[in-house]
Design goal:
Structural class of chain B: alpha+beta
Shape of chain A: globular
Order of helices and strands of chain A: EHEHEEEHHHHHEEHEEEEEEEHH
Number of strands of chain A: 14
Strand content of chain A: 15-25%
Bound molecules: flavin-adenine dinucleotide
Shape of chain B: globular
CATH class of the largest domain in chain A: Alpha Beta
Number of domains of chain B: 3
CATH topology of the largest domain in chain A: Uridine Diphospho-n-acetylenolpyruvylglucosamine Reductase, domain 3
CATH architecture of the largest domain in chain B: 2-Layer Sandwich
CATH topology of the largest domain in chain B: Aldehyde Oxidoreductase, domain 4
CATH architecture of the largest domain in chain A: 2-Layer Sandwich
Radius of gyration of chain A: 18 Å
Number of strands of chain B: 28
Radius of gyration of chain B: 27 Å
Strand order of the largest sheet of chain A: 4-5-10-6-7
Oligomer: heterodimer
Largest sheet of chain A: 5 strands, antiparallel
Helix content of chain B: 25-40%
Structural class of chain A: alpha+beta
Helix content of chain A: 25-40%
Chain lengths: ~260, ~775
């Protein structure tokens, strides 16, 4: 790891000013993506501004059907939160399937969303649920937030403070893990929302997370796994790598979508 | 005797490991220690036009930046291959030079061109990045088949066409004739995927030069510290043997990858002399993928013929073995004498011919990895046997049984003479444990759940206990492969056993004490095993090839014979009895049939006080043995794998895995079962998960755990492990060896099971869900077309 300066931010405003003052600083949340990258000497931020201790960035609030999750909330907290389990068990369940226990107890939803790894799990949920990403300056709709591979609508030094969404009437996430990394080779989040059926796919798209609109249309007319039988998932635009080619990923999108719908609670 | 042979004694070494008190090479801290960071080529093939270290040298904490010109200038020799293979035409190998630090050319990604020595590891790494190397990039090639094509880049000047050697075994004409007359022929292309060894502890070295004594000490992650010292002295000219101490302390796994003496250890020793500092280097995981010798990587074609009664008449094999960019220590032996000599499998085959082309590529050197040649042979034989059974429409179980070798000794046409075994009993036991008779019902039941169920077999045989020194010498080995032991009985009767074997996970500190405990009826807590230090143990060949039981323990056994004889002489003298009447049991030395006895410790004391010894006897009680085996040993067994495949995704679940092994005498069944479990885990890893992948520029795509899939606990089944042993006639304990069997026997069982389930035999390792799904698609497309 290259030398870096560590700062502990006490508030969002503090974090924003610390990062603004730094040469080439980076926010540090759970560090489960950033620190391995630094250890591999692939990133060399001049400063690290640790936001994990900022009190109002933690915790999960369910009021009515609206769920708000602080950006610094760990995957483990999301997985075991009773209110969330009651309101939207699919998201708790998704969090329980991220990485391993150590990763879940440090890694955070804000870090995951900001990183927008094309194989990360949360982006599928947030896109399907039409979530809102709240930063220190604005609110961004999930549909506008996830721009491409590791790319988001965030500007430099913008801090995600929380993520919120309306609990769907039904939803489930079906993940097919990569055999090595156990990130999603394909993950499909299916939800029945106030705005209709939503199917978001992670791990497969060569531009990152996306919505499978033909499946959404099929599910809007008949919310059943069998309704997906007629949907043809093509391999164009899907990732191909040493683990799986686009054709296999296309198959998995269909199979996992079916399983997500069938598994919906 | 609760701690003797056959007892499940808990591992003595585990206490310190579980308490975090193991002492590994990276735990060693020498006063004023500096750190090494290597400057490695990012290119797979390039000329080195120049190295500019001026910026690096000026950086904080940098002690020195050293390069290959300086290394060779100081007379440090090129890295050797310890086994010379003779080509078909009688000529030697076309071996290219390998310098610990490359000078004019780099030949794989990770090839080191310089080393930075600095006060801290971070300073060393920062400076290593600041070393400017001027590369002229050359075309590169990673696959053996591509390296053999006409337009492939040539990697070493003295290996035209990238062929290191073209070697053969067996008789071509009779094999061709037998195949020509066969009633049935099965032909197959068989690939054995490239693996990275991945021991939990990465390689590490701490080298210290003492200028006052002109003496070197090297702590290193080695499976064979004496071999390391010998090679470092005799070939790399680092220091004469008596001025070099090599210590391999606790070592966290090796799987073969820690047999060899790598550029880093050589460089650290030399750099320690150059800088007059202790120099430490510890590999990180990426460096391990880039530099630890890889395993396997064979591409073969095979043809087997049967007569009308389904008896094998001949087997003909061609193998292209990817050697990597340089010849590692045993790289020539692995795809030849450790591979093709096992192509007879468990079967009577009158005619076998195999030729092997070893090929240079721009990849990490390939050498022995758990099984070393035998997994490649077993995979080939057991895949083609299963395939032949399917093609002939006969039971794979019956086909094997019909062809089993049943009388011993059995001379195969490929050098090996099997000394013992009972293949049918192992098969019977495995079939029973697997409830083979109930398989069809299970398949039907699985189908009702939408799952494809399949069963696969592997009747492996392998050769362990390497090896009779004269025999391997005649085949080209540069060393003898005996083992040594020294048994020291202290004046108080406690015992230290010094062994040339090295334990890096095998549990020697437990099993070795058990044979001493058995012999003298002493508690194992009174016995200490000493290994891994060239200043303590006189010499040893180390641990690999499942040799520590059959060879290492045999040496201890022979030394115990000598101790026992002396103890009896002393006791007979003191107790005024005949030597023949002395018996040793329960820690007492007695005159049979009388109440006359001495405590074990009293004999020890008598030996060391020397007050009352037989006329002419030297005082002391310490005996040494150098044991040279008379033959290889031949562990064998039957593995059965049962899988369920999800046809929608190709996900394969191993629902049952049965092993029935013949390891000869078993000293500690718990440790043996652990070895089998670990071996099968690695075999399943090879069969379903692990794969080293290079791109077209010979860059390794799988050089981290993000992409290299190690088997995890939830990838693996519960194992059903059984034994049906025949005693090995070749060594005093009757042992055959168990360290590699699991990794050797399991891959074909897995692939045979999956191909049985999906009805498509065309499936290569690793059989990932993606490949299995594609094979299912191909099978149904074919069916639709028919
Ligand atoms: C072994 C392992 C396995 C994993 N498996 C999975 C998996 O299966 N599925 C999965 O989805 N993920 C997986 N991850 C990734 C994990 O979920 C990470 O925790 C997550 O991607 C990043 O969150 P973090 O809190 O650790 O962020 P950090 O690593 O601290 O930061 C990541 C990036 O986000 C930025 N950032 C962090 N917080 C904010 C914020 N509030 N506002 C703006 N920018 C911010 C940082 O500056 C940095 O650029 C795995 C990680 C590891 C190490």
């Amino acid at each position: 790891m290259y030398e870096t300066k560590y700062h502990k931010a006490s508030s969002v405003a503090d974090a924003v000013s610390l990062i603004g003052e730094s040469d080439d600083g980076k926010l540090l949340s759970g560090g489960q993506t950033l620190l391995p990258t630094m250890k591999a000497r692939l990133a060399a931020p001049s400063d690290l501004v640790d936001i994990s201790g900022i009190a109002n960035m933690h915790g999960i609030k369910v009021s009515g059907s609206t769920v708000t999750i602080g950006a610094a909330t760990t995957h483990a907290e999301v997985a075991r939160n009773a209110d969330l389990q009651a309101a939207c068990g699919s998201v708790a369940c998704l969090a329980a399937g991220i990485g391993d226990a150590a990763v879940r107890h440090l890694g955070t939803i804000g870090g995951s969303v900001a990183n927008n790894d094309p194989a990360a799990d949360y982006p599928a949920a947030l896109l399907a649920l039409g979530a809102t990403i709240t930063t220190n300056t604005r609110e961004i709709a999930a549909g506008d937030f996830f721009v491409g591979l590791f790319e988001t609508a965030l500007s430099d030094d913008e801090v995600i403070v929380s993520v919120s969404f309306d609990a769907p009437s039904k939803a489930a996430y079906a993940k097919f893990p990569n055999p090595a990394s156990r990130y999603a080779m394909v993950g499909v989040f299916a939800a029945q929302t106030a705005n209709g059926a939503r199917v978001a796919v992670t791990g497969a798209g060569s531009d990152g997370v996306y919505r499978q609109s033909d499946m959404e249309a099929a599910l809007d007319s008949d919310w059943a796994a069998s309704a997906l039988a007629g949907v043809q998932v093509g391999s164009e635009g899907l990732l191909s790598d040493m683990h799986a080619d686009a054709v296999y990923r296309a198959n998995l999108v269909k199979v996992m979508a079916g399983r997500a719908v069938a598994g919906c609670a | 005797m609760t701690e003797g042979i056959g007892a499940r004694v808990l591992r003595k070494e585990d206490k310190r490991f579980l308490m975090g008190k193991g002492r590994y090479t990276d735990d060693i801290v020498e006063p004023n220690q500096a750190y090494a960071a290597f400057v490695r080529s990012p290119h797979a093939h390039a000329e080195v036009k120049g190295i500019d270290a001026s910026a690096a040298e000026a950086m904080d904490g940098v002690v020195a930046v050293l390069n290959g010109e300086q290394l060779t200038g100081d007379g440090i020799g090129n890295i050797i291959c310890g086994w010379g293979v003779t080509q078909k035409d009688g000529s030697g190998m076309n071996m290219g030079a390998w310098s610990a630090l490359a000078t004019s050319k780099v030949r794989y990604v990770g090839d080191a061109v310089a080393v930075v020595i600095a006060d801290s590891i971070e300073q060393a790494r920062n400076a290593a990045e600041a070393v400017e190397v001027d590369y002229k990039i050359l075309p590169a090639v990673a696959q053996s088949m591509k390296a053999l094509t006409n337009d492939a880049p040539e990697i070493h000047d003295n290996a035209p066409g990238n062929v290191v050697f073209d070697w053969e075994i067996g008789d071509l004409a009779p094999t061709d004739a037998a195949l020509a007359g066969a009633a049935y022929i099965t032909e197959m292309d068989i690939t054995n995927n490239r693996l990275a060894p991945n021991p939990m502890e990465p390689r590490s070295a701490v080298a210290t030069y003492n200028d006052a004594e002109e003496h070197y000490t090297l702590y290193t992650t080695s499976q064979n510290p004496h071999v390391a010292r010998l090679v470092l002295s005799a070939f790399y000219q680092v220091a004469p043997e008596h001025k070099l101490r090599v210590i391999a302390p606790d070592v966290g796994g090796g799987f073969g990858s820690k047999i060899y003496i790598y550029p880093e250890e050589i460089t650290c020793l030399w750099a320690s002399m150059k800088t007059n500092r202790s120099v430490k280097w510890t590999s990180d995981r990426t460096e391990a993928f880039l530099t630890d010798a890889h395993g396997r990587d064979h591409v073969s074609t095979a043809k087997i013929g049967f007569d009308k009664d389904h008896k094998i008449v001949g087997l003909k094999v061609n193998t292209k073995a990817n050697i990597g960019a340089y010849m590692s220590l045993f790289s020539s032996a692995v795809p030849t004498y450790l591979y093709a000599t096992l192509l007879s499998g468990q079967y009577n085959i009158a005619n076998i011919y195999c030729d092997v082309q070893a090929v240079y590529t721009n990849t990490v050197p390939v050498d022995a990895y758990r099984g070393a040649g035998r997994p490649e042979a077993c995979f080939l034989v057991e895949r083609i046997m299963e395939t032949a059974a399917r093609e002939m429409g006969v039971s794979p179980v019956e086909l094997r049984r019909k062809n089993f070798v049943t009388s011993f000794p059995h001379q195969t046409p490929v050098i090996m003479a099997y000394d013992s075994g009972d293949f049918a009993t192992n098969q019977d036991q495995a079939l029973k444990a697997a409830d083979y008779d109930g398989f069809e019902a299970r398949r039907t039941e699985a189908a009702s759940r939408g799952k494809l169920r399949g069963i696969g077999f592997s009747n492996y045989i392998e050769a362990c206990g390497i090896a009779p020194s004269a025999a391997v010498g005649s085949l080209g080995a540069g060393v003898g492969l005996w083992e040594s032991a020294e048994v020291r009985v202290n004046p108080v009767g406690t015992i230290e056993v010094l062994t040339g074997s090295h334990s890096h996970g095998q549990g020697h500190e437990t099993t070795f004490t058990q044979i001493v405990a058995e012999r003298f009826g002493l508690p194992t807590e009174n016995i200490q095993i000493v290994h891994g230090d060239t200043d303590k143990v006189q010499f040893g060949m180390g641990t690999y090839g499942s040799r520590s039981g059959a060879v290492g323990m045999s040496a201890i056994f022979k030394a115990l014979d000598k101790v026992e004889a002396k103890v009896k002489k002393i006791a007979a003298h003191v107790l005024e009895a005949s030597e023949d009447d002395i018996v040793i049991e329960g820690g007492e030395v007695k005159v049979a049939g009388t109440d006359k006895l001495m405590g074990w410790h009293e004999v020890g004391l008598a030996a060391y006080t020397g007050h009352n010894l037989p006329e002419g006897m030297e005082p002391g009680l310490k005996e040494t043995s150098f044991y040279d085996p008379t033959n290889f040993t031949f562990p064998a067994g039957c593995y059965i794998c049962e899988v369920e495949v999800d046809p929608e995704t190709g996900v394969t679940d191993i629902v049952q895995f049965v092993a029935s092994d013949d390891f000869g005498t078993i000293i500690n069944p718990m440790i043996v079962e652990g070895q089998v479990h670990g071996g099968i885990a690695q075999g399943i890893g090879q069969a379903m998960l692990e794969n080293v992948v290079y791109d077209d520029d010979a860059q390794q795509l799988s050089a981290s755990y993000m992409d290299y899939a190690m088997p995890r606990a939830d990838d693996l089944p519960n194992y059903s492990v059984h034994h049906a042993s025949t005693e090995c006639p070749g060594n005093p304990l009757g042992m055959k060896g168990c360290g590699e069997a699991g990794a050797i026997g399991s891959p074909p069982a897995v692939i045979n099971a999956i191909t049985d389930a999906i009805g498509n035999n065309d499936l290569s390792m690793p059989a990932t869900s993606a490949k299995v799904w594609a094979a299912i698609q191909a099978a149904s497309a074919k069916q639709a077309a028919e």
